[in-house]
Design a protein that fits this description.
Elements lengths: L1 H16 L1 H8 L3 H29 L2 H18 L5 H29 L5 H9 L1 H20 L2 H6 L1 H12 L5 H9 L4 H7 L5 H21 L4 H8 L4 H29 L1 H14 L1 H6 L3 H29 L5 H15 L3 H11 L1
Helix pairs in contact: 1-5, 1-7, 2-3, 3-4, 3-5, 3-18, 3-19, 4-5, 4-9, 5-6, 5-18, 6-14, 6-17, 7-14, 12-17, 12-18, 14-15, 14-17, 15-17
Amino acid sequence: MFLGWALEAMDFYIASISLSEVAATFGISISQMAVATTVTLAMRPVGAILFGVLADRYGRRWPLIANVTICALISLCSGFAPNFAVFAFLRSIFGIAMGGEWALSAAMTMESLPPACHGLFSGILHQASPFGNIMAALLHLLVFPRIGWRPLYWISVAPAVFIILLRFWVPESPEWLRARAEAQARQLEQLESATEKGTLRTVIHMLLLISSLQFVNRSLTDLFPTIIQVQLKLPVSLITVALISRDLGTMIGSTTSGYLSQFLGRKRVMLGSIALALAFVPLFVFAPLHYQIILGAVFITIFIGGFNGVLAVFLHEVGPSRNRALFMGFTTQLANLITGATAQIEAALAERF
């Protein structure tokens, strides 16, 4: 599960880290190019619903295999995109696949492990995202200066094939098998259950909570490489160091918070992480020196990672058991859609001011 989410995070981040280069290839502005990122995020709720329904009805295993297969094909095609319209279309299809991956991986992980391990492994699972970001940064450092941005997408096909083969050997979720033995999930029941036992209220609460954090997260993820490249004028080597430092901070924060949530409680750790992240925003925004700006970004992502590290287990525990994959995917990916225009807003403001 870790490898699948890491692969899709890497592919998504390749698009962000090479934003200015792809824009130059297609002869468009960075703000126009940011539409591709927005389109990807906009389609993720579609994938969350589609793969969530399939996973709750037919099991986690086969949708997970299909998910990575689609991502591999789209990555391959993205490297051959002749113009921006084709590139944006391919990224929208990738968004559908990416929208299903996290929820299915999180559900499969939580359902296959004993409850005493849920907090720690929720944090470890979130490490997949910054790990994928680090791989993207390293690929950009090693590959782009020599042969351009297109091979970055082609290279990601190789690990995808390995993950597909690996998932053929992964057993089905034992919790889902037990639920299927009791009753077959039906689409009508899924729709009805959205208003049962306070689930609708829980969905709204989760949307507000996740969306508020994602506005901060998106500002430090989608255009951060472009910010330090265009505004700070850093060379590729220092950009890579900055990106890896930021993502290592996320990995440290997510694992630590996931472990602490077993003892301090999920809500305390999540709210504390948000408060600490906000405390470092002035350093990132107003610091006069380059290293101070990067340091501010690292500390913010440590604590944003702290929030995200608890998110999987928290959604697992508060969501309806019958439709867990649908609930987890829908709430997280709709929140991503709500905050999807962050990159465009940032790019437009940067070009104007």
